[in-house]
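task queued by scheduler; priority normal; single chain, no ligands, no partner chains; default sampling; output format set to structure tokens
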Amino acid sequence: MSGRVVVNRCMSLDGCIAGPGHSMDWGGDRALADFVAPDDLAEVAAATGAMLVGRRTWEVGQRMAAENPGGGDYPFSGPLFLLTHRPLVPPNPDVTVLTGDIGEAVATALDAAGGKDLEVLGADVAGQCLQRGLVDEILVYVLPVLLGDGIRFSSPGVARTDLEPISSSRSGDATILRFRVRERSDRTVR
């Protein structure tokens, strides 16, 4: 059984996945885990076999962890892949750095997921995956906040992508939306 490639996003009601300067401050010291029921986060984490993360998202996450140690921990354990053109300084033995083609990066990380889902984090990486037709599903945690400005859910230049609603549910203070990416005739086969 092969896992799915799932773009996983938190989003404000006004469509931002991060605020100005890539800030993922959802209100004070609140993180995703403060909005979503723990069982729902645990269910998504259990279905995830590996993560593919973009550099900006990685850096913001590292900054947030340094500012609030242990805050908003996501109950995921598995291989973490960082897609970047710059090496980590200092190197992190828990992170595999990938460079080059997005299709090869997704194939490597999906293989490491061991039949579970590959979770894709980061606006640029997700946009590249969508452009190449590599995404199976999109999971969105809609949080009860209006950011007013910031990084939009979909990057400019991402082609129209038709989605099929799978589910919507309330979880804590958030609404969880799941969509299947509909097949396009011009999708690149992975």
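post-processing summary
- The chain has one domain: 5-181.
- Residues 185-190 have pLDDT under 50 and may be disordered.
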